[in-house]
Amino acid sequence: MIKEKIITEEIAKEWQKEFPILKEVIHVGNCSQAPQSRRVRAAIEEYLDNWLTVGMDWDYWVTEVNKAKKEFAKLINASEEEIAVTSSVSMATASVLGSLKPEGSRSKVVLTEMEFPTIGQVTLAQAEKGNFEVDFIPVQDGKIEEEEYDKYVDADTLLTGVTFGYYQNGFKQNLKRIGEIVHKEGSIFFVDAYQAIGTAHVDVKEMDIDILTTGNLKYLLGIPGIAFLYVKSELAEKLQPSITGWFGMENPFAFEIKNLDFAAGTRRFDTGTPPILTAFAARAGMEIINEVGTKNIEQRIEELSQFSLNLAQDYKMRIASPSNTEEKGAVTAIECDNAHDVEAKLKDQKIIASARGNVIRIAPHFFTTKENLETVFKHVDKILKS
Ligand SMILES: Cc1ncc(COP(=O)(O)O)c(C=O)c1O
Known about the structure:
Blueprint: H1 9-16, E1 26-27, H2 38-53, H3 58-76, E2 83-86, H4 89-97, E3 108-112, H5 117-130, E4 133-137, H6 147-152, E5 157-163, H7 175-184, E6 188-192, E7 211-215, E8 227-231, H8 233-236, H9 276-292, H10 294-314, E9 332-335, H11 339-348, E10 351-352, E11 354-356, E12 359-362, H12 370-385
Parallel strand pairs: 1-10, 3-4, 3-5, 5-6, 6-7
Antiparallel strand pairs: 2-8, 7-8, 9-12, 11-12
Helix pairs in contact: 2-9, 3-9, 4-5, 10-12
This protein binds pyridoxal-5'-phosphate.
């Protein structure tokens, strides 16, 4: 059990020592790539050293992948058996969509227009082969009201795909309430948690989520090349992935070329040789998040989120994010004419932030201090006025 502990400015400052770059740089680009921690680096070196000195150590390497699955399961309150590992959210989504079979008139997938584009692209690519239609819930003023789910999700809906956090402006959805609407109609509830997990508490059981996917390089402190897929075990048993491989079979080492023998449960969504090096990194990153505690981090992020909104308002910036922290995650998005230019100018000032479209996204993590945010907003203001 992780004790609830308020993350103070002092605790945040202490944690900054875990991330060497923070001695030199203010990093509020966590919605894109988190800074490198000592522990993640050590985990990567552990793999490199083992490969260098032992040469080949499959049992140890695969055990490390299972440890990463276990750490992810802990993060979302699932069991290790309910987790599959993949290389990206796109792959995980393709795998899920490829396993869908329309049942009678239940042949529609509902997505929102605030999904990261890859979710829409993967779904459209699978729709023809899977014989289902795709409908999109529109974004209005940077948000989607919960009633919209009532309008779009009906008895014909096979799966509803929802993003936890909107990549453009940090809008955070209430998964529990949306899950209730979606399940009332008998649809599968699919969540892309990439833009919020690590900063917001996720409990797949309490939120009644059927399927959840995320990568690791943002708020989970990892690197590119690995993603996780949670599928509720009762549901996994009913799905037959069209994207599969020997690691998704009941016994990968049976080497039976003519036998498609899916593993029991979610492991059937595993495919080929797992991403080993990235699993070392992912495990170490998620260990930090689990150690600090997702409820503690959520509380801290809410505080930093409000603090950022106040600063943006004080500087009279055009804010593209929701104005209340109940529906806003870590990101504070500031509208600007040339966001990529602003990102480059901030980098010159040793500040890492992330441009997307017409906004510059300021995305702190639990280790960001209020002093850091004051410096960031001061520089954004200067750049916007220059
Ligand atoms: C919410 C969200 N989903 C998915 C992706 C893309 O995932 P991947 O590149 O692992 O397919 C991103 C990338 O930034 C994202 O922000």
